[in-house]
């Protein structure tokens, strides 16, 4: 009885977890989204609670001598705790889902749903609906230039320095990725010229580039930031298509 209850609980938990995490991964958290958004620690907690702790507790409480009503109560409590953890973890991942990979001025950066203020989203939907996010929006690469008005641009820059909203969080200014490629080309660097990576990270990146047949001495790359994490985006100098996205550690 114990092992039957354990396997049934494990199978149900695995199915529920696969639906939630699989849907989020397929829709929003493909590479490099899960890495830059630090999603693995949330997913790890969900796996621990739903695939390890829950079924193990069922194995413990499913005593053959226990009355059916008592067993149903105990397992019900375990399942409720699991569901609460699954809802909380799923909601956390949903609110932090990647929505944009932005190029702005001289920087590539991830923008998550939680980075956008409702009023900026509403303004974007009204003024620039083609690039504004909706609940079903999946991650896309965009250009986020500063506005042409110098006073407005200065206001945004100063506000961002002081901890306010940056232009990459203002969908009303977003433009297509292709429009920003001429400016992006001027910002590409060789790995050794980058100050954002340590010496050890640069060596790791160059080894990974060599394994992929990518030259490490050409000015064809740029760091892509996500919170405190960063990866290296390597571009084809002819087409400016991304050839690889490499983690430095």
Estimated helix fraction: 40-55%
Number of domains: 3
SS element count, helices: 8
- CA-atom Rg in angstroms: 23 Å
**Gross morphology:** elongated
Commentary on this structure:
The chain contains 8 helices and 7 strands, in the order ααααββαβαβααβββ. The chain has 3 domains: 2-95, no CATH class; 98-180, no CATH class; 188-246, no CATH class. A 7-stranded mixed β-sheet has the order 4-3-1-2-5-6-7. Helices cover 48% and strands 15% of the residues. The model has no long low-confidence stretch (mean pLDDT 91). Strand 1 (98-104) and strand 2 form a beta hairpin. With 249 residues, the chain is α/β, with parallel strands linked by helices.
Layout of helices and strands:
Layout lengths: L1 H26 L5 H4 L3 H22 L6 H28 L2 E7 L2 E6 L5 H10 L12 E4 L6 H12 L13 E2 L4 H5 L13 H13 L9 E6 L2 E7 L6 E5 L3
Parallel strand pairs: 1-3, 2-5
Antiparallel strand pairs: 1-2, 3-4, 5-6, 6-7
Helix pairs in contact: 1-3, 1-4, 3-4
Question: Can you give me a brief rundown of this structure?
Answer:
Helix content is 48%, strand content 15%. The chain has helices at residues 2-27, 33-36, 40-61, 68-95, 118-127, 150-161, 181-185, 199-211, and strands spanning 98-104, 107-112, 140-143, 175-176, 221-226, 229-235, 242-246.
Features:
elongated; 249 residues; 48% helix; 7 strands; single chain; 8 helices; seven-stranded mixed beta sheet
């Amino acid at each position: 009885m114990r092992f039957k209850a354990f396997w049934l609980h494990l199978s149900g938990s695995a199915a529920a977890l696969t639906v939630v995490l699989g849907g989020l991964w397929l829709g929003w958290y493909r590479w490099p989204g899960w890495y830059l958004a630090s999603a693995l620690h949330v997913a790890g907690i969900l796996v621990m609670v739903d695939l390890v702790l829950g079924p193990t507790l069922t194995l413990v409480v499913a005593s053959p001598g226990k009355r059916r009503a008592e067993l149903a109560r105990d397992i019900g409590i375990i399942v409720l705790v699991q569901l609460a953890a699954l809802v909380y973890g799923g909601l956390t991942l949903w609110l932090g889902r990647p929505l944009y990979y932005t190029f702005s001025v001289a920087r590539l950066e991830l923008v998550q749903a939680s980075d956008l203020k409702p009023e900026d989203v509403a303004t974007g939907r009204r003024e620039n609906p083609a690039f504004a996010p909706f609940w079903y929006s999946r991650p896309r690469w965009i250009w986020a230039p500063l506005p042409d008005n110098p006073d407005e641009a200065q206001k945004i820059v100063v506000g961002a320095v002081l901890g306010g909203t940056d232009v990459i969080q203002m969908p009303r200014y977003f433009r297509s990725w292709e429009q920003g490629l001429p400016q992006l080309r001027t910002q590409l660097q060789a790995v050794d010229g980058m100050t954002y990576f340590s010496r050890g990270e640069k060596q790791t990146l160059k080894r990974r580039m060599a394994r992929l047949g990518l030259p490490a001495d050409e000015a064809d790359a740029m760091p892509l930031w996500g919170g405190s994490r960063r990866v290296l985006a390597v571009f084809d100098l002819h087409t400016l298509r991304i050839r690889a996205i490499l983690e430095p550690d």
